[in-house]
Amino acid sequence: MEPPRSLAAQLFLLAWDSRRERVLGQGQLGNALRAAALCDLVLQGRLAIDDRRVVIPANAGAARPGRPAGDPLLEDLVAATAADRPRRIGSWIQRGRRRTLGAVRDQLAADRLIEVERRRVAGLPLDRRVRVNNPRPVEILHTTVQRALAGGHVEPRVAALVVLGASAELRTVLTWRQRRAHRTRIAELTAQVGDPLPAAVKALKDARSYAG
Fold first, then answer.
1. Helices (H), 44-182
2. What does the radius of gyration of the chain's CA atoms come to, in whole angstroms?
3. What's the mean pLDDT in 42-71?
4. Per-residue pLDDT tens for 166-206?
5. Which of 95, 116, 120, 161 is most buried, by the most CB atoms less than 10 A from its CB?
6. What are the residues whose beta carbons fall under 8 Å from the beta carbon of 126, sequence distance 6 or more?
7. Is the preceding peptide bond at 156 cis, omega within 30 degrees of 0?
């Protein structure tokens, strides 16, 4: 079984801790998933960055290779962006981050890639235990991350996946020591992708500083 195509779904799976059977870093994960979706849409030509704002490009209808067909989350984000005023990248990423987290999780569950158990105490939601039905896609994603860190040119989507996982400080992707050891390579991957990745990285950093 291959990993899902969308960057947001891939990042969610990379955040899964097999020992604890839960997804880690949920304080930052919603922002990271929004950033991943933004990178997906910009690389597909469906969104663009204009003066640090997220906009619908004039040629948005043009076909681009690698565009996932019928991705509900991406379709909703494009529609919401078209109906809204242009927003700066940081604002776009933080807007609706909890709904995005839920949407990605629910889609993975609908596709039977994961199972979600909602545990309750005194009738109140406490936690969501996540089980991955087949560990193979997660293993492939971790191998992809390590190969990208080893050097050389990689696909923009792979570079974005590595950088966003590191920027969100998801220790299931890279530990603190690994992030430190590979910071030069992470900077190279950020530059390889270009817009909107550097601004997305800054938005994730700003969100962590605000939360802290």
1. 72-83, 89-94, 97-110, 136-149, 156-167, 176-181
2. 17
3. 77
4. 999 999 999 999 999 999 999 999 999 998 999 999 999 88
5. 161
6. 119, 120
7. no
Quick check: 33 and 203 in contact, CB under 8 A? no
Measure the CA dihedral 97/86/77/40, to 10°.
Answer: -90
pTM of the model as a whole = 0.90
Residue 124 — very low, low, confident or very high, per pLDDT cuts 50/70/90?
Answer: low
List domains and CATH numbers for the chain: 7-211 (1.10.3630.10)
Count of CA atoms in the C-beta half-sphere (13 A) of 206? 11
**130 - beta bridge partners?**
116
